[in-house]
Each structure stands twice: as C-alpha cells, then as structure tokens.
Amino acid sequence: MIPSPYNFEPALSDQEYAKLGILALRWSHIEHILGNCLKVILRLTDEEAVIVVFSLSADQRAE
Which has the closest alpha carbon to 63: 39, 26, 40, 34? Predict the structure, then answer.
C-alpha cells in the first residue's frame, strides 16, 4: 500500500479490505440489475436507458 500522511479510516486488515471489495462489487451488480429491470419495464432502448435510467442513483431508481 502507498503510505499516506492522512488516516481517514482505521488500519484495516487484508481480510477487511477483501470484504469491502466483495461488498462493493455486489452493490454494483445490484445497481446494474435494477437499471436493466427499469429499462425493460419502461421499454427503453439501450441509448435511451443510458440517458434516463443509468444516470440515476440507486435511491432514485428505487422510488
């Protein structure tokens, strides 16, 4: 790891960083699935979905 004079989070173990990585990937996958579901429900093309659906946050998609 690159040393930094700033310490925004406590020292995390390798296992904790691995768990954070897994959770981030899982969350990203869930957001993508939500976007694809909305695209189908709204009957949008890929180009339209990029503009309308995929620009929204997960909170906005769930509303």
Answer: 34
